[in-house]
Amino acid sequence: MKQDIIYSETLLDWSEFYALASQGYDCNDELRFRLASRLISLGCADEVYEIALKFEDMRLCSHFVQRALSDGIIFNLDQLTDLSYCVDIDTSILLIKSCDRPLAYDELTRFKEEFYIDLL
Fold first, then answer.
1. Handedness of CA 19, 21, 25, 30 (dihedral sign)
2. pLDDT tens digit string along 68-88?
3. Are 117 and 92 in contact (CB under 8 A)?
């Protein structure tokens, strides 16, 4: 039964995702990624941010965040800063470029110092 749920191709809404997660179906990165990949819509940045921070595997987190960015999700500065610790450099650059507002010089300098990303 658990295998049927995990490998199902049925799309999920957020309430279904959280129901399965509360039953332990997102107990590791692979399962969490499988469930998150089945979401009909990624919704808002806050929901994506919450799920993305749970990933321990940088590759899976990067892929999930890239999907969110391609779906038009826009993160605020605090979210993209936190997420930059969880994703690869290329995804960090995409996050910075898609911030909900232009970044100031000191903010860009911080990314250069903390993440070695030079967008100045």
1. positive
2. 999 999 998 889 889 988 999
3. yes
Cα gap 26→11, rounded to integer Å: 16
Q: Considering the chain, what is the average pLDDT of its residues?
A: 83
End-to-end CA distance of the chain: 53
Where b means 16+ CB within 10 Å and e means fewer, 49-86 reads bebbeebeeeebbbbbbbebbeeebebebebbbebbeb
**3-class state of residue 100 by DSSP:** coil
Tell me how far apart the alpha carbons of residues 120 and 100 are, in angstroms, rounded to a whole number: 18
For 24-117, where are the alpha helices, taking DSSP H only?
29-37, 45-52, 58-70, 77-84, 89-97, 105-115
Structure tokens at 95: 């996050």
The whole-angstrom distance between residue 90's C-alpha and the CA centroid of its chain comes to: 14
For residue 18, how many other CB atoms are within 10 A of its CB? 15
Residue 102: DSSP 8-state = P
Write down the pTM of the prediction: 0.81
